[in-house]
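Handout, section 4.2: multi-component inputs.
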Amino acid sequence: MRKKQRVSRAFYIIKSGKKGDYEFRGKFWIEGKDGTFLGVGRATLLQKIKEYGSISKAAKAMNMSYKRAWELVESINKQAKEPLVITHIGGKGGGGAKLTPEGERILKQFWEVYHKFEEFLKEEIKHFKF
Amino acid sequence: MRKKQRVSRAFYIIKSGKKGDYEFRGKFWIEGKDGTFLGVGRATLLQKIKEYGSISKAAKAMNMSYKRAWELVESINKQAKEPLVITHIGGKGGGGAKLTPEGERILKQFWEVYHKFEEFLKEEIKHFKF
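Output:
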């Protein structure tokens, strides 16, 4: 039986790749005025909302409850200078959600830092003498 | 009454400093074959052992139980290519501990990566457009 795919804590960890027995690992997030504003999990949720045009589909894709996804979106929107996600109700398919241009802009920058951090870890482990 | 100083989880977080309401934060550690080999907490323990010449004094300085400090030292030594900490028993003052040259070498490199990571976060938040 295949193990059910879950978004585990390991998912949020950024890794260098192994060198012998060792691997550099890290986490990265943006803290806002009410705690976490944007980390890897939240950025992935925004990414999925962008892809699916729906918070419930994005939540499902992340094995996350709809309630939890909503709470995260609210926390992100509340801490951003302007909303990163907007929702519309009703119509065919029962409403949806999408990123605002501000959301696209912030998300793009977040992934840039994420990838630079990954590069940083890869570079540092190369030079580390175990 | 002064609040008792404790080593909290926040202690292990590396920070960029604030820009408006926002701060970049991160964690960094080296994973070994049995889980964490060396992170900020373990590196600080090694640093304190180096300073105090004693695992029990180092543990006390970190508000950590002696048992916990021993376990961490054992985990570090077991995962390193050669021991990073050696202990000697008895004599005046009831024995002690110190870093091996290998311990000094690994610790020095760890703090170098730590400081580079801190610099990375400071640099990235500067360029991030919120």
